[in-house]
Write a structure and sequence with these properties.
- The chain is an alpha/beta fold and about 200 residues long.
- The protein has one domain: Rossmann fold (3-Layer(aba) Sandwich), CATH 3.40.50.150.
- Helix content is about 30%, strand content about 30%.
- The chain is built from seven helices and seven strands, in the order H-H-E-H-E-H-E-E-H-E-H-H-E-E.
- Strands 3-2-1-4-5-7-6 form a seven-stranded mixed beta sheet.
- Helix 5 (about 120-125) links the parallel strand 4 and strand 5 (about 125-135).
- The longest helix is centred in the middle third of the chain and has 14 residues, at about 70-80.
Length: about 200
């Protein structure tokens, strides 16, 4: 999801195609969190729900948020087909807030490219021991990679990820190169965890 593309435009994009994105999870996301103990997960900018459905199939209790009603409907259909339950929410992730007192063991942002500072807000929604997991197109991708937004303001940098991780324990921060038919896509990935207990 990128800024400059409103909900109606994404609705049209999703409605005009069988699937815009793959039905399977991103390989790095799958490799990174596939073996984690399930808990409560939040998928921000869920799109057609590929990660939400996948997480639910692993036993996670998932809330999926996206501003495209068509994308969310696709996700609902996918969840029905997989026989899993997901809490689907049609809302702008730049303004959405979880219910009071609700925290998450996992907050996932996969290719969410918007100008709102969602990362810093999402950090506050982590339960003790919970992880913020982010992957998106790196700024370097604009000049040396393929695909993704062409607006540098929407691309990710390590400095941005480090700032968003303030107060968290950074377990992974670095580039992920995805070979594509037209060339390599350069992503930036982050895993940052809220400490299980705060020092006294």
């Amino acid at each position: 999801m990128t800024a400059g593309h409103g909900a109606q435009e994404w609705d049209s994009r999703y409605a005009g195609s069988d699937r815009v994105w793959s039905a399977s999870p991103n390989a790095w996301v799958s490799d990174t969190i596939g073996a984690w103990t399930p808990g409560r997960a939040l998928d921000l900018g869920a799109g057609e729900g590929r990660h939400a459905v996948w997480l639910a199939s692993l036993g996670w209790q998932v809330t999926a948020v996206d501003f495209s009603a068509v994308g969310i409907d696709r996700g609902r259909a996918g969840a029905r087909g997989a026989g899993v339950d997901v809490d689907w929410v049609v809302a702008d992730v730049g303004r959405w807030e979880p219910p009071a007192g609700v925290t998450f063991d996992l907050v996932l942002l996969a290719y969410l490219h918007i100008e709102d500072d969602v990362l810093s807000r999402a950090r506050g929604w982590l339960a003790p021991g919970g992880a913020l997991v982010v992957i998106g197109h790196a700024l370097r991708n604009l000049t040396e990679g393929v695909g993704g937004p062409s607006d540098a303001r929407l691309l990710h940098t390590e400095a941005e990820y480090r700032a968003a991780s303030e107060g968290l324990l950074v377990e992974h921060l670095g580039e992920v190169v995805r070979p594509l038919p037209e060339g390599d896509a350069i992503d930036l990935a982050l895993v940052a965890r809220r400490p299980s207990s705060q020092p006294s």
